Amino acid sequence: MNTMIDGADRRNLGSDEAVLRLLHEAESMILGAVLLEQDRIHELSLETKHFTQSRNRIVFGAMKELQKKNVEINPVTLVEELQDQTENAGGVTYLLELAAYCPSVANLGYYEKIVMKYYDLSLIRNSASHFLNDYTPESAQDLYKVLIEMHSEQSHEEETKESIIMELYESLYEERSGMPGVNTGFPALNGLTGGWKEGELIILAARPSMGKTALAIQLAWESTKEEGVSLLFSLEMSSKQIMQRMLSNLSDINMMKWHNPYKYLSKEEMPRMQEALNAVYKANLQLSDNGLITLMEIRQRILNLKREYPTQPFLVVIDYLQLINVKERFDRHDLMIGHITKQLKSMAKEFGIPIILLSQLSRGVESRDDKRPRLSDLRDSGNIEQDADIVLFLYRDEYYNSASEAGDVVEVKVAKNRNGPVGTVKLRFKKECGRFNGNGK
Length: 441
What we know:
Blueprint: H1 17-36, H2 54-68, H3 75-82, H4 91-101, H5 108-133, H6 137-155, H7 161-171, H8 187-193, E1 201-206, H9 212-223, E2 229-234, H10 239-251, H11 261-264, H12 269-282, E3 285-288, H13 295-308, E4 314-319, H14 333-351, E5 355-360, H15 381-387, E6 390-395, H16 397-400, E7 409-417, E8 423-430, E9 435-437
Parallel strand pairs: 1-5, 1-6, 2-3, 2-4, 4-5
Antiparallel strand pairs: 6-7, 7-8, 8-9
Helix pairs in contact: 1-2, 1-4, 1-5, 2-3, 5-6, 9-10, 10-12, 13-14, 14-15
């Protein structure tokens, strides 16, 4: 076969002719394997863009078209499909050479990995070159995106059917203690959700003054127990404000006393506050209050902390969705929201952690007689509901009706639960110290 290397197809892989010859041989073996056994094309995850030689891109594209049409793939049908592109694809001679090039399909997966590897390297090289020639935040972000995507692909190892079956078989004879997920701190809520589980995106939504930030803070604290790790992104409040709320929650002391604690804390409250300070100091709780934080920065914080604590129970809380800064441009707001939730769901799966994402509800709730939230009340609900594994709504009847018999009861409605039942849990909310307890009945 003609192994002459087309300079236009180097894709900045460098001047190592041996590498280029290996790569082009791998591409030829892949195309030859499909011509040898056409059903092998169903096993390939390659796309036309992954091939370095333009003629190979054209040939593979024609093969994919024949696959779509359910037409046999051979040199004759390829010529028919290519028509006036035949010469650009190397001509009939090249197609016949490909058909005779691959003696066996046994190593098809090996050659596919070679092609994918050097495609990734070419993307990195091109992005790095662009960054060095155009030293701007935008070019740096492009390079970072390529590196992150490559890391995500390499770190994701699919479990085989055999390993999954074996794991499930062993579970039949192994008694497991505790819950499958991170403890919520509320037995009734644990009963519905099984705790916050690996890979889950949990949406916590409510209208203002329902207590969603207070509940998020308490959930973050609960996850630090039993050597757990919690990372809380506060995009609206400062870390100091979040810390004051948490301390008031733990000490059961009115938050208003933080205006002048030396003056307002009683002799009985002072040791309780000191005890709370000591507990939070020892806990593995990380705070971030960057109001302009991006998805990439969120991902980097999670990655750094996950590397430091790879095996501990882990929870990420983000307050809240609509304040996440997005660099990309979108034609519609709902597309931007969908991009955020999809990326966060992807992070949850990649790192094997639960992510609780707070969200606003539309004002349409206020116009109804029954102001209990519904899934349709989520802003841009289609995208959020699609990506979420669990959707929680908070409702306080006392907020809308001062004479309500519900008093301090907050309804926590599990409106969506991909892996379990839905239902409503009632908690009591001590608003002055931002503390929930599970005695709502």
